[in-house]
């Protein structure tokens, strides 16, 4: 029997042998897995295979891009809304629901039919390209096509903004391209992002401009020259590039506090609305007047008169505006008043436009149109073109109240009115009792609907934000639009067919039942319900 001390000795030798064998086998793995320590440099010489040591500041510069690099930022939103109107509404003069601005006069059978649609086309997509802190380029587009009543697959992108700005210092800025007009730059609260209550207040929309801003204490001073045809564009003008004078706009913003801004602006231009030397109707004729070719008995006086008739016709256009934005806690308010003449085009936000007519039509449509006799007969057949300049005053006011961080309500209202409606083209009385064909009836034949002399828009809004970048909203609008009728068909003159003041004789007529005529007032209620996801940074 083996003694116990010898057994203990034997077990100890075995355990020691197993431990040494395990250490020998696993020591290479332990050495590989362990972190390697840098060997200290004994001398001041750095080996060629080791890069030079970097300071912490130099390492941070390599990790963060320098300020001179180009940086990109995606902007915009995805927006879809369901739109409904109980009567026909016009969007920049077109009969659709994409961005309604006014009610249409009831001249077609379907104008009193309700209509609805779903519109994702007012979504925005853009990018900001920055080069350092002083230079930035902005591109922005939506997919609205107001010439179409539905948003089909043929709808194309539409440029809203494309410009760049350069800030050499914190007080000075230069901008060039297509951006929001320097004139009348206050936009009311509205979820109709394409129109912004266009026909009832905001004249300034977008314009190709070259301008600058300068900060002076609590004031911002701006000035720009721009394309004349984008807003100030009478229909009789065919080519905006033929206007040698651009629009000239100035603006002053005053920020007495961080919650209040007062602004005023002005714009002016001289429009070339008739150019006999280059009008297409003169093709095939001599470029310059030669009396010997037209009148063998011409005199210097008749030649001078003919030369004057061939000169370009120009009219003045422009306006002034006063606006404000004010924030008091959860309440925010915006408002603006503008006054001007000839400030409209199809894409603008006003209703005034240069009216072209003849002396004959002007007399026939006036309250004296029933007069007859040699003098009035000669005047009525005159086809000499006359250009009238409607003057317009507009204003809007909107409020937005943030009930909570996620819920808010608001109201808005605006009015546009022509102050000299006597120069407007009126609707022909004889056509008002007839239902028009199923085709657009405004720009193609203004005598069917008459020119717009006044427009109102009142609305209520409510929104809910379940997330930071998601919003669901509802907006109602009530449009009331007044159209011009021919003056001679109102009052006592509506009963007179003709009257010769020289002989004192005339004829009476039955004006008919006024209740069967198309009303000069168009009214429509609209509803927009939708949501948007904004991915602006």
From TrEMBL:
Keywords tagged on the record: Membrane, Transmembrane, Transmembrane helix
Source superkingdom: Bacteria
Keyword Membrane (UniProt): yes
Sequence segments annotated as region (Disordered): 45-67
Chain ranges passing through the membrane: 12-34
Name of the protein in its database record: Outer membrane protein
């Amino acid at each position: 029997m083996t003694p116990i001390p010898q057994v203990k000795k034997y077990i100890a030798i075995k355990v020691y042998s197993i431990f040494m064998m395990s250490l020998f086998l696993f020591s290479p793995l332990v050495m590989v897995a362990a972190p390697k320590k840098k060997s200290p440099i004994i001398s001041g010489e750095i080996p060629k295979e080791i890069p030079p040591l970097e300071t912490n500041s130099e390492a941070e510069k390599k990790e963060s891009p320098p300020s001179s690099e180009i940086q990109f930022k995606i902007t915009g939103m995805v927006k879809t809304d369901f739109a409904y109107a109980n009567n026909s509404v016009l969007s920049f003069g077109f009969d659709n629901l994409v961005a309604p601005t006014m009610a249409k006069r009831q001249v077609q059978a379907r104008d009193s039919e309700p209509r609805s649609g779903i519109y994702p086309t007012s979504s925005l997509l853009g990018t900001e390209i920055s080069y350092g802190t002083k230079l930035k380029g902005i591109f922005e587009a939506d997919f609205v096509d107001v010439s179409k009543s539905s948003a089909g697959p043929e709808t194309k992108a539409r440029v809203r903004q494309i410009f760049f700005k350069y800030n050499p210092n914190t007080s000075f800025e230069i901008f060039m391209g297509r951006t929001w007009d320097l004139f009348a730059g206050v936009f009311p609260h509205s979820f109709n992002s394409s129109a912004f209550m266009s026909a009832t207040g905001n004249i300034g929309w977008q314009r190709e401009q070259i301008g600058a801003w300068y900060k002076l204490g609590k004031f911002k001073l701006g000035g720009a020259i721009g394309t004349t045809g984008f807003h100030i564009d009478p229909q009789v003008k065919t080519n905006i590039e033929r206007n040698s004078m651009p629009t000239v706009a100035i603006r002053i913003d005053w920020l007495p506090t961080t919650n209040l801004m007062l602004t005023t602006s002005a714009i002016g231009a001289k429009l070339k609305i008739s150019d006999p030397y280059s009008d297409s109707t003169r093709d095939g004729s001599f470029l310059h007047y030669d009396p010997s070719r037209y009148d063998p008995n011409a005199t210097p006086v008749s030649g001078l008169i003919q030369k004057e008739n061939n000169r370009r016709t120009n009219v003045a256009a422009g306006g002034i505006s006063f606006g404000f934005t004010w924030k008091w806690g959860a309440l925010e308010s915006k408002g603006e008043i503008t006054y001007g003449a000839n400030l409209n085009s199809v894409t603008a936000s006003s209703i005034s436009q240069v009216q072209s007519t003849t002396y004959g039509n002007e007399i026939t449509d006036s309250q004296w149109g029933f007069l007859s006799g040699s003098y009035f007969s000669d005047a009525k057949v005159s086809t000499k073109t006359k250009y009238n300049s409607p003057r317009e005053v507009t204003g809007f006011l909107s409020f937005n109240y943030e009930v909570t961080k996620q819920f808010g309500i608001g109201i808005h209202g605006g009015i546009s009115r022509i102050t000299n409606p006597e120069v407007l083209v009126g609707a022909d009385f004889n056509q008002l009792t007839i239902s028009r064909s199923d085709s657009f009836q405004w720009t193609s034949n203004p005598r069917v609907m008459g020119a717009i002399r006044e427009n109102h828009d009142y609305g209520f809004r409510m929104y809910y934000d379940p997330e930071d970048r998601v919003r669901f909203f509802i907006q109602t609008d009530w449009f009331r639009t007044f159209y011009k009728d021919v003056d001679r068909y109102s009052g006592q003159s509506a009963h007179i067919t003709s009257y010769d003041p020289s002989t004192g004789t005339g004829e009476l007529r039955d004006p008919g039942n006024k209740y069967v005529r198309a009303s000069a007032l168009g009214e429509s209620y609209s509803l927009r319900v939708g949501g948007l996801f904004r991915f602006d940074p």
